[in-house]
Amino acid sequence: MGQGKLAGRVAIVTGAAAGIGQAAAIALAAEGADVTLADVADCGETVQRITDLGRRALAVKCDVADGAEVRSMVDQTLKTFGRLDCAFNNAGTAGVADQVVHEADEDDWDDVLATNLKGVWLCMKYQLPPMLAQGRGSIVNGASAASMIGIANNGAYIASKHAIIGITKTAALEYAAKGIRINALCPGPTRTAMMQRFLPVLPDGTKADESIYANMVPIGRMADPAEIAHAVVWLCTDDSAYMTGQGLIIDGGLLAR
């Protein structure tokens, strides 16, 4: 058995091929966990980095909006590792950029809500039974600093991220007495491919560069995914044993203004 605060434990991370999900999976492994990596994209790089740490990794192709695929992902985790202790339900999509509400595309709305919100619910639906059986667990749902505010021209994304806070608080109340903690993680601007989606369009029709985020954030820069990953680890360990039903904001001071 390895060393670390998660030694002997098993985690699931969705959206683990890149960005915050990849960083979180590696950080969980560094703390001793074996990890299931779920994504629609290839997780080969993440697998390699986890095995280099001496931990086991299981890569599973999984569309979190598909209940059968989510159930299979959890079943494969239990078959491979024998247990499930924590999960970071991070998979998400940004949708189509720059749509005001009355011009939003219905198919895009459905896709964003299916992945971001239904996907979180489906993950919890199938992760909770094995946690209930062992009498403990910690689930972290991927929300956003945008869960707390409105952002013009991003209605579907904002609606989905606000709703994640609601389902997180509800589930936390339902399972707190059963030894399972459920929180949401709300990162601010983080250097990932998805953040490029939110760069505003300038008057000349070009996209702003990412320095715009540095000017927005009091700390003066974007977060590195590894910085957000540290918070995922904390929420999954016993160090956060008295915390449930919360949306943990890590935004460089963005929402303090």
Protein traits:
single chain; 257 residues; Rossmann fold; seven-stranded parallel sheet; 42% helix
Based on CA atoms alone, the radius of gyration comes out at 18 Å
CATH level-4 homologous superfamily: NAD(P)-binding Rossmann-like Domain
Helix content: 40-55%
User: Judging from the principal axes of the Cα atoms, what is the shape?
Assistant: globular
Let me know the number of strands. Answer: 7
Tell me the CATH topology. Answer: Rossmann fold
Order of helices and strands: EHEHEHEHEHEHHHE
- In whole angstroms, the N-to-C terminal distance is 46 Å
- What does the average pLDDT come to? 93
How would you classify the helix and strand content by structural class? alpha/beta
How are the strands of the biggest sheet laid out side by side? 3-2-1-4-5-6-7
Q: How many domain units?
A: 1
What share of residues are in beta strands? 5-15%
The CATH architecture comes to: 3-Layer(aba) Sandwich
Low-pLDDT sequence parts: none
Query: What is the CATH first-level class name?
Result: Alpha Beta
Fold topology:
Blueprint: E1 10-14, H1 19-30, E2 34-39, H2 44-51, E3 57-61, H3 67-81, E4 86-89, H4 106-134, E5 137-142, H5 155-175, E6 180-187, H6 193-197, H7 211-216, H8 225-236, E7 247-250
Parallel strand pairs: 1-2, 1-4, 2-3, 4-5, 5-6, 6-7
